[in-house]
Write a structure and sequence with these properties.
It is built from 16 helices and 23 strands. It has helices spanning 2-26, 32-48, 87-117, 155-170, 173-186, 191-212, 219-229, 247-255, 270-281, 318-332, 428-433, 458-465, 478-482, 506-515, 555-574, 576-626; strands at 54-60, 74-76, 123-125, 128-132, 140-142, 145-148, 240-241, 283-289, 306-312, 335-343, 349-358, 362-369, 377-383, 389-394, 405-407, 416-421, 424-426, 439-446, 450-457, 468-471, 474-476, 489-495, 500-505. Helix 3 runs antiparallel to helix 5 (173-186).
């Protein structure tokens, strides 16, 4: 389930990337068809790219020990265990409920559409199917079917409407609508996906308006038709309908000058961001030894004092785990609990948590998890010269020489306590002064002779969550930062714009000097967009058409509506000078945009240089680390 959450987070991030790129750079351009494919490509890229993982193998020198503590983190358990909420299950249930609700809404919309189309007379003409309904619904198209109410419009208005809907049908815009609805169901929790869907529908209307006016002689009459259709609020979902609430934007785009072809460079800016995404999140680095001193044995060896070893590897089955648990309980009265078990498509173990208990004498746990199969390890039960039993985790015979937990009755318990708040070691007095409401998390780890209390405050946790953390130029998790001893910090840089925290430790400086590690390049600063977009004139509100048929319905109401429409059209005619002034303002706006476009071109060139510098930096860094 964790893999699903990671996939959804990565996909949501890519959706946000494509939407913001469209919103800030492309939505005001008249490249409507190119914008259509850009938005669709953004959805499919967001769904597929998080599944593409590149494996990078780094050759390292052979180690004298075969213990990989990064793969087998061992921590001792807390004596007083507290109840933990399984947020994975809660989020999973919430996500499933959201999908079910939005999928139900999608099915209901199909049912509503079928209700409108069912039993209607269809007129076939060329590649289109026309349905002239008596219901008060806005004109719409669904694939090659176009539905309208001819009694609500004049012949010229109906001609404009049909030209518009034919474009939707010819270019299969219904497919775009269905795809956007599907992504809204899968990513319902992401607020930007709803704005993304709105951008797709709005751009489809721009395409239809642009193509329809090519076949219509009177462009202003077409705009009046747009305004009249706004009075019909009954629209059928999952269709391309002539009515859109963003009517002002459609009229503005109809009167806007065509964008210069040189502005098409903006589409390329998304590529560096996608490359950065792959480098940062989709490259799986695997360290491989150059020479192996000795092949890994099938069974973990124990020294002469070892009593028993219970081996666990990637191929260990659930039945074998139950058998090991039973043997430990029967032979040594040790309660072994295996939990958090996850397997990949090959049925190999990728995560497991082991808890060992024997009354009040021992309480020890080990957990390993990741995307790759686990390394082999074992539960080692041994005895010393006095016959005292000890238990520990290990991956080869060297671990038996490490400190183990003794299984002995009435063992003395002398515990030293260390307290850390936000990674800084403090006294008991400092702990007593802290307000419990300020505590975000508190972890208590206990060994034989040492107890460790680590507290993270709300402000510290918020700051960490909002920034990427690097220790000695290596990206780390919040848990690794929490465990960092602040007395070892030599320098800490916080970049608010880049949202990064970079920490250099004293050991890191010494290591950098010894290794002569290169310094990462500084990325260029993008140009600032401070040009104000001209505001279109305020359009009067169109009168609302009465319900029913104008012939068989309330004739008095329809006469009043016609008078209101005449007044409305008169007001719209008065707006023509303002519309012309607005067109001039848009022309001046395009001229002001030219310097910014040149700055963006210069920024793009700097970005290419920066990418080359980053490639050289990674190559030099890898070369220095191999030395």
């Amino acid at each position: 389930m964790e893999a699903l959450y990671i996939y959804l987070i990565k996909s949501s991030g890519l959706i946000a990337l494509f939407y913001l790129a469209y919103y800030f750079m492309l939505r005001k351009e008249t490249f409507f068809t190119s914008n259509r494919w850009f938005l669709l490509l953004g959805l499919f890229t967001s769904a597929v790219l998080p599944l593409v993982v590149y494996t990078k193998i780094i050759m390292v020198e052979s180690s004298s020990k075969n213990i990989d503590w990064s793969r087998i983190p061992v921590t001792n358990s807390i004596e007083n265990e507290t109840f933990e909420i399984n947020w994975y299950i809660i989020f999973g249930i919430t996500y499933a409920i959201g999908i079910i609700l939005f999928l139900g809404k999608f099915v209901f919309d199909f049912y509503s559409l079928n209700t409108v189309l069912k039993g209607k007379t269809i007129q076939n003409q060329a590649d289109f199917k026309f349905i002239d309904t008596t219901e008060n619904v806005a004109p719409f198209s669904y694939f090659n079917t176009i539905v309208y109410n001819s009694s609500l419009y004049s012949s010229s208005e109906l001609e404009n409407i049909l030209e518009h809907e034919k474009v939707h049908s010819d270019q299969n815009h219904t497919v775009d609508v269905l795809i956007s609805r599907l992504f809204c169901i899968l990513f319902w929790f992401n607020p930007l996906i709803w704005l993304y869907k709105k951008a797709i529908l709005q751009n489809l209307e721009f395409i239809a308006d642009n193509e329809a006016t090519k076949n219509i002689s009177d462009k202003k009459a077409y705009q009046f038709t747009l305004l009249k259709i706004t009075t019909h609020e009954n629209c059928v979902a999952i269709t391309n309908h002539f009515y859109q609430s963003l009517i002002k934007k459609r009229i503005v785009m109809l009167n806007k000058n065509q964008s210069k072809k040189s502005n098409s460079w903006k589409y390329v800016l998304i590529i560096p961001a996608l490359v950065a995404f792959v480098i940062l999140f989709q490259v799986n680095v695997i360290a491989q030894e150059k020479t192996a001193v000795q092949a890994t044995t099938e069974i973990i060896k124990a020294n002469e004092k070892s009593v028993d070893v219970y081996k666990i590897n990637k191929n260990t089955t659930d039945e074998e785990l139950k058998e090991k648990s039973s043997n430990l309980k029967e032979n040594y009265a040790i309660i072994a609990t295996f939990s958090g078990i996850k397997r990949n498509s090959k049925n190999e173990l990728t995560a497991i948590k082991v808890d060992l208990k024997k009354g009040k004498e021992i309480a020890q746990k080990m957990e390993t998890k990741g995307t790759e199969a686990i390394n082999e390890f074992g539960i080692i039960v041994s005895k010393d010269d006095n016959g005292m039993l000890t238990v520990n985790f290990g991956s080869d015979e060297t671990i038996i020489n490490q400190e183990s937990i003794v299984i002995a009755p009435n063992a003395p318990s002398v515990t030293e306590k260390e307290i850390f708040i936000n990674g800084k070691k403090v006294s008991q007095d400092d702990l007593d002064k802290i307000d419990p409401k300020e505590i975000a998390t508190m972890n208590v780890n206990k060994n034989d002779d040492k107890q460790e209390i680590r507290i993270i405050t709300n402000n510290h946790k918020k700051m960490i969550n909002e920034n990427d953390i690097y220790i000695n130029n290596e990206k780390v998790s919040q848990n690794e930062l929490d465990r960092l001893d602040q007395s070892t910090i030599e320098r800490m840089d916080v970049n608010k714009d880049g949202k990064t925290i970079r920490i250099i430790t004293k050991n890191g400086i010494q290591y950098s000097q010894e290794k002569n590690l290169p310094v990462p390049p500084t990325p260029p600063t993008p140009p600032v967009f401070n040009i104000k977009t001209p505001a279109p004139p305020a359009f009067p509100k169109a009168p609302k058409a009465p319900k029913g048929d104008p012939i068989k319905g309330d004739k008095k109401a329809w006469k009043e509506f016609e008078k209101k429409m005449e007044d409305y059209e008169a007001k719209m005619k008065k707006l023509e000078p303002q519309m012309e002034a607005f067109d001039k303002q848009m022309g001046e706006f395009d001229k002001k945009m030219e310097p910014f476009n040149k700055e963006m071109e210069a920024f793009e060139k700097k970005m290419k240089v920066y990418e080359q510098q980053m490639e050289e930096y990674h190559s030099n860094l890898e070369r220095e680390r191999k030395k």
